[in-house]
Design a protein that fits this description.
Helix content: 25-40%
Order of helices and strands: EHHEHEHEEEEEEH
CATH architecture: 4-Layer Sandwich
Radius of gyration: 16 Å
CATH topology: Purple Acid Phosphatase, chain A, domain 2
CATH class: Alpha Beta
Distance between the termini: 33 Å
Largest sheet: 5 strands, mixed
Length: 179
Amino acid sequence: MLNIWLTSDTHLNHAKPFIYEARGFRSVEEMNEAIVERWNKVVGPDDIVYHLGDVMLGDNEAGLKLLKSLNGHIYIILGNHDSTTREFLYKDCYNVYGISFGYRMKVGKISLMLSHYPQLVANGDDPKPVYSIHGHTHSKDRWSEVPHTYNVNMDAHNCTPVNLEDMIKDIKERMNKNG
């Protein structure tokens, strides 16, 4: 079965305590190991992953080694820490299939705009909203005060990618709750 996953802000190899300690780890090595283990536990080798930016920081060689150890066909949406140098390095990873500033998709009747940053989005005269699927905030909450946004960053999902079907269920529950 093909699965689609979403995540952001892995910050692989980002050796700053404000990142790994906020996630409950004692070291960057412990964080890296947990992210790779949790990712590969849920994402299969042939699954699709939309990584919404801020893939790695620090030493590029060490970060690339971690990126290459992740399962799936990864599509990277560039974040504020994904420099031009890193963009070129990502292109050489066998498991990276695309690099962009954003993607738009429709799942059933739900329209999604995938980007690193939360956005206010609209869909012309259609009364159904477009949902902004994002990272960047490092919030532990998957919902924000910005209407129609869903946060897929590592911090909000126990350092594990989010399955698209599960995210759609969350969105539908919120739509039904809010009318």
